[in-house]
Amino acid sequence: MARQEGSPDFKDFDERLRRLREDARLPQDEQAEERAKPSIGGAGVQVGVELVAGVIGGALIGYWLDRWFDTWPVLFLIFFFLGAAAGMLNAYRYIRRISDVPEERKNR
Amino acid sequence: MEEHSPLEQFEIHPIVPISVGGVDISFTNSALWMSIAVVLVYALVMLGSRHASMVPGRLQALVELSYEFIGNMVGSTVGKEGRRYFPFIFTLFMFILFGNALGMIPGSFTYTSHIIVTFTMAIFVVTAVTIIGIVRHGWHFFTFFAPSGCPIYVMPLLVPIEVLSYLIRPISLSVRLFVNMMAGHIMLKTFAGFIVALGAFYVVPAIAPLALTVGLSGLELAIAFLQAYVFTVLTCIYLHDCIHLH
């Protein structure tokens, strides 16, 4: 394999690239803008999936626990609503993430 | 005319039937397309990086582009510690992207349109991330489920919700990818079916579904990329949460 990492061509690569960019009046880092924000494509679908997954996940876990402890339908009902709440929490976090609002917990 | 259901494309049929001790582990069309994806990704990266030159050719540019894309994603979402998980995330992204994109070839099979495939990947990701979190933080990891700074009497309600929202992650992660891929392919096939149905009688009105199918194909390619991106970016975010706790 022809690897040229050590070859003199690469030595001042960054410096030359920077100089060329300056001459051409290009931004120093093209990706800086893209990186700032994740895509919000299909945000509606994403939020919907979070909500539905919450209800399904909660109901499934409740159903399994009920079968395990033989307490149908107590745990199923509890976990159904807890799952719905968890789904809303996930959807809420997702929306916050894509709308660039820092989560307040992080500041504490 | 034989039956062509829009759901027919999702059928799994064995190519080489193998049965070990009564367990069916046949080499299916799904496995075939997974193998094709792996071979293609491997070939792309190997051929693209073989003649590393100062001014990259097309193949090398493609490889460098995807490397930098994932590298930047890992760097900006996970941070410095994420570098060591780069190989896994790059593999994950390429496998999903090729699965989605190869599914756009007429007559091929889209393995990412099966919930069991996406769920396996999602449960692996979440399990791996949890283990990484526990290894890094020990018992301290479980404070992840107890939001700081809230009154003690709401804890019995909040902790179960936090735990559930964590357990739900593999479901939402896998459902998102699978639903997008399956819905898109059903839609594409349905509209493509209209071309035949209409074209059999009048040629001119068949142009409308044809144009729609062309447009949808473009949209589907964009979704193929976007969903691979979303899956990987969420993996990165979960990784970040577990490394940094909050």
Provide an overview of this structure.
The complex is a heterodimer of chains A (108) and B (246). Chain A has helices at 13-23, 32-36, 43-69, 74-98. Chain A is mainly alpha-helical and 108 residues long. Residues 30-38 of chain A have low confidence and may be disordered. Chain B has one domain (8-244). The mean pLDDT of chain B is 88. The A-B interface holds A 1-4, 9-10, 31, 35, 38-39, 41-42, 45-46, 49-50, 52-54, 56-58, 61, 79, 82-83, 85-87, 89-90, 97, 103, 105-106, 108 and B 49-54, 68, 72, 76, 147-149, 160-162, 164-165, 167-169, 171-172, 175-176, 179-180, 223, 226, 229-230, 233, 237, 246.
Break the fold down into its secondary structure elements and pairings.
The complex is a heterodimer of chains A (108) and B (246).
Chain A: H1 13-23, H2 32-36, H3 43-69, H4 74-98
Helix pairs in contact in A: 3-4
Chain B: E1 14-16, E2 19-20, E3 23-24, E4 27-28, H1 29-48, H2 58-77, H3 86-102, H4 115-137, H5 155-167, H6 169-199, H7 207-244
Antiparallel strand pairs in B: 1-4, 2-3
Helix pairs in contact in B: 1-2, 1-3, 2-3, 3-7, 4-6, 4-7, 6-7
Task: Characterize this entry briefly.
Chain A is mainly alpha-helical and 108 residues long. Chain A has four helices and no strands. In chain A, α3 packs antiparallel against α4 (74-98).
What oligomeric state best describes the polypeptide chains here? Answer: heterodimer
Kindly estimate the percentage of residues of chain A that lie in beta strands according to DSSP: under 5%
Number of H- or I-type helical stretches of chain B: 7
Kindly provide the radius of gyration of chain B, computed on alpha-carbon positions and rounded to a whole number of angstroms. Answer: 22 Å
Order of SSEs of chain B: EEEEHHHHHHH
The largest chain-to-chain contact, stated as pair and per-chain residue counts, equals: A-B, 36 and 33 residues
Radius of gyration of chain A: 25 Å
State the shape of chain B. Answer: globular
Structural class of chain B: mainly alpha
* Net shape of chain A: elongated
The major β-sheet of chain B equals: 2 strands, antiparallel
